[in-house]
Amino acid sequence: MVEIKNLNKYYGDVKVLNDINLTIDKGDIFAIVGHSGAGKSTLLRCINGLEEYQEGSLIVNNHEVKNLKKKELNEFRKKIGMIFQHFSLLQRKTVFENVALPMEIWGYDDSTIKKKVDDLLHLVGLSNKSKSYPKELSGGQKQRVAIARALTLDPDILLSDEATSALDPNTTTSILNLLKKINQELNITIILVTHEMEVVKQIAQKALLLEFGNIIGLDVTEDLFLQPDEKMKHFLGEDEVVPTDGVNIKIYFPKDSAHQSLITSMARKLDIDFNIVWGKLEEINTHIIGNIVINIEDSQKDLVCDYLKTKDINWEILK
Ligand SMILES: Nc1ncnc2c1ncn2[C@@H]1O[C@H](COP(=O)(O)OP(=O)(O)OP(=O)(O)O)[C@@H](O)[C@H]1O
């Protein structure tokens, strides 16, 4: 659906995307994550042809985007919906008129427009607001209108640029649930840009981490969070505070074993005590994953390591 190879993008002499390689499959919910200025929006805008790229290949729906002529680009963009942080609704138009706008521009007849807009307002839960104006709606409702509008031309892909960044956590969750429903019921691929890790954990099946235009992580979301490498830890701002005495061991629980009693079994089996330094469990994309850090005496290190090696589990000694 989207295939990017060795993509480089410059603004003037400044390289803002460096050697980007990735594939997004049909039906994926794919997150592009990074701090401010990382190049997330630029990458999203390259995908729908709003930005040019100078080197490499970017194929969307079997089209090399930079080769599209103006007329082809309009047809191409018809199949890509987009939503934004600040909703981009027209204040003087009603909810119905806002949603209808793309179809009017493309010259659909009134009865087709009415049916489509009514169906979409039903899908996003706003049938009773069709005559309201944007200023009469909450932030979450405005984003629902924007989502309905983005779906009017039956896109294959929905691009979301920080669509939940202006919303409170509960409203964010309700919008993410709506996006999941759209992904599942309409089989629309969703590519979302966000700086919020919670958004990634709640919705994305795969995520790309960008830093200064470089890919520093690209994986299935659970795997990115389950055992983050040094770059990812730095990115997440997870500085590990651990005791300076003894040996600190971090044990990762993948999705299928988060509830197993590995730690207590180990204590019983080896007949040793150890301190639990810290640990956490969290829900990522409906799976529970987690990790725990234990502190043991130096003399117990070999015993514990030998035990852990017999288990099908990831672990590391923290330096
Ligand atoms: N039109 C432009 N002209 C020149 N430089 C630009 C332009 N747009 C973005 N940039 C620069 O490109 C880099 C990437 O910007 P981009 O907006 O893609 O980052 P981002 O990760 O989306 O950040 P944010 O989360 O703050 O929106 C930044 O250094 C930015 O200053």
Write the layout of secondary structure elements.
Blueprint: E1 2-11, E2 14-24, E3 29-34, H1 40-47, E4 55-60, E5 63-64, H2 70-78, E6 80-84, H3 95-105, H4 110-123, H5 139-151, E7 157-161, H6 169-186, E8 189-194, H7 197-203, E9 206-211, E10 214-220, H8 221-226, H9 230-236, E11 247-253, H10 262-270, E12 275-284, E13 287-296, H11 301-309, E14 314-318
Helix pairs in contact: 3-4, 3-5, 4-5, 5-6
The protein binds adenosine-5'-triphosphate.
Summarize the structure in words:
By secondary structure, the protein is α/β, with parallel strands linked by helices. The chain folds into 2 domains: 2-231, P-loop containing nucleotide triphosphate hydrolases (Rossmann fold); 247-318, Alpha-Beta Plaits (2-Layer Sandwich), CATH 3.30.70. Helices cover 35% and strands 30% of the residues. It starts with a strand and ends with a strand. Residues 11, 16, 34, 36-42, 195 line the site of adenosine-5'-triphosphate.
> What level of helicity do the residues show?
25-40%
Mean pLDDT across every amino acid position: 90
Low-confidence stretches: none
Bound molecules: adenosine-5'-triphosphate
> What proportion strand?
25-35%
| Domain tally | 2
* Major sheet details: 6 strands, mixed
Radius of gyration: 24 Å
SSE string, helices as H and strands as E: EEEHEEHEHHHEHEHEEHHEHEEHE
Strand neighbour order, sheet with most strands: 6-7-8-3-9-10
Class based on secondary structure composition and strand pairing? alpha/beta
Number of helices: 11
Task: Note the main attributes of this structure.
35% helix, 319 residues, Rossmann fold, alpha/beta, four-stranded antiparallel β-sheet, 14 strands, Alpha-Beta Plaits, 11 helices, 2 domains, binds adenosine-5'-triphosphate, six-stranded mixed β-sheet
